[in-house]
Every structure is written in structure tokens, then in C-alpha cells.
Amino acid sequence: MMKLFPVVLLSVLFLLPSAAPAVEKLPLVWIVSTGGTIAERINPATGAAVPAVSGADLIKAIPDLAKAARIKVFPLCNIDSSHMTPEIWRKLALKVNELLADPEVKGVVITHGTDTMAEGAFFLELTVTSKKPVVFVGAMRNASDLSPDGPANIMNAVIQVCSPESAGWGVTVSLNNYINSAWYVKKTESTNPQTFVSGPHGYLGYVLMGKVQRNNDQPRVLKFPIPDKLPRVIPLSTFAGDDGSLIRCAIAEGAKGLVIEGVGSGNVNPDVAGAIKEALSKKIPVIITTRVEWGGVVPAYGDVGGGEYLQKMGAVLGGQIDTFKAHLLLMLAVAQNDFSVEKLKTYFVYDID
Ligand code: ASP
How far apart are CA 120 and CA 187, in angstroms? Predict the structure, then answer.
């Protein structure tokens, strides 16, 4: 009888539930790192911030991330976003589409500098095909700072990706707990952490004590295929006394499209209006935006150079899209040879529900 004891004991032990609680499989989230203040430290020789932290090190600094998701890191580049280019965003969009095609992947967090984050996020808003969450996150205080804001921003971004409340938001810019759609977000403070706002369009949501509060839906969906090559589209601001010579230079430089940033509700002086007319006569599409923070461009003024005058001339009013996002949208439209005035008017609609 005694000989049987070990066999019986092993059988019983084998049948007992395993001691470790069954850990529900955490969602898989990719973090694509591109650089920015979030990944910078102070150079002791100069006292200024420079790229210094890898994507992997960023994650190591946030141990609690492992409780929220399985994290994989893809280091795309490590640059200050003042050095970003549409070509790098094109490559980023291709990589994000590839990562999101994996059914196991819940979403992507992109660590990026804040200087050009708004337009980088908008480029991906226009080119990412998946409906899964894509969250741009950065920091206004670098890793050498007394209280860097990067780690909490990354944690909140992963919480946002994993939260059912985030469904259908498209690409967002999420810092300091606030969640902005890529469509209308702007960087409005050069040093304060509460820099990204969407003005009258409001926030999409807010991360409160580890949970996503949902306030709004994504304002709009507009998608373009990712081209192999991006055409040269030039955005130009205008100023008092502007004689239109910079527009003529852009035409001479071979611009395939122009975004002209006017004043007020989208108005320019007669000399600039004349240069715009020259561009249009050469079949170069022209979008009119405004330097004014909110309210967009409307055909309110009919004197020479007013918004209504420019629209009648064949320029397209840019609606509520700012100059540097209009730059990218027009680039994608021209890339697919899809820039008739009628077509452009469907892209730059004013009233977004
Ligand atoms: N100059 C930095 C960048 O855009 C600013 C930041 O990330 O906060 O990369």
C-alpha cells in the first residue's frame, strides 16, 4: 500500500489548480519612439537639453506600465521634433499601419517632440488605416528635470490605448491628462506642460485616476493613401507690406501647391492677391488659412484680397484647419493628383459636426 502513496500524492498535486492566480493576458501595446524632450537630458557642458534617452530606457523608468499592458518598443529615430520632416512622418505612418495590422495589437503610443507633434499627429490621422487607438505623447520637462512629465504622460497614453472609452477617437495628442483630437489641437504654450488645447472644439477626454473620461467624439474622418513620394507644397505667412515676392519665389522653386496664411477671417493685401492669381494661373492649387488662433477662414470680405474675393478667384478657403496642417493635407491631395477646386473644397470643409 505504502508503495502506491507517492503515485497517489503526485496525481493529487497534479490536479490541484496552479498556485499562481491565472493572469488575464494583458493587451499588447507598441511604443514607437521618435525623440523629443521626453527623451532628452541636460548636456552638463551647455546646460541645454539634447536627445539622450532610448525608447527602451523610457519604458524602464515606468515599472507600473507592466501592470497595464504587454509593451513592445520600436525605436524609429531619436530627434528633437524641430528636425521632423513629412518624409519621417510618412515612414512613421507606414510602420504604424504595419504594427496595427497584427490582430493581437491593441494600439500604438508614439513618443514625439511637442514642437511639431500637432502636425505629425495630423499626418497620421490622415494616413493610418486602422481604427485602433494611436496616441501621440511627449513631455514639456526633460528627463533631467526635477519633475519630468514624460513618465506619467506615457502611463496615461497606455491607459488610453487600453480603455474601451477611447474607441473611435482616431489619432490623438495626449499630454497632462488631456486628450485632444489630431484635427484641431495646437501647441499654445512654449514651456508650460498644459500646452496642447483644441480651443472651441474641446477635448476628446481626460485621464482621471487611471481611467479615461470621454467628453467628445472624433470631429471627422478623412483618409489618404500613403504616397511613395511627397510633393513640394509650401506654406507661407503674409505680413503688413507683403508685396507677394515670397509667393513668386515659391512658384519659381517649383511649388506644386501653396498654403497662404492670411489675417483675420482669411484676408490678404492686393499685392499678395495678385501673386496668388499668378499661382492659380499656373494651375498651382492655393489654400487660404489664417494666423488667427480659432474661428477659421470664411468668405466674409469681398474687397481685393478678402476671403470672398480669393474664393471667387479660385483659391480654396481652409476652413478651421491651421496652416501647418493644411500644408500636409494639400501635400497628400496633390500626391494623388486629386486637387481640383471642387475636390479640395470637400477636404477643407468649414462646418464639422
Ligand atoms: N523641442 C522639443 C521637441 O519638440 C520640445 C518638446 O518635446 O517638448 O522635440
Answer: 12
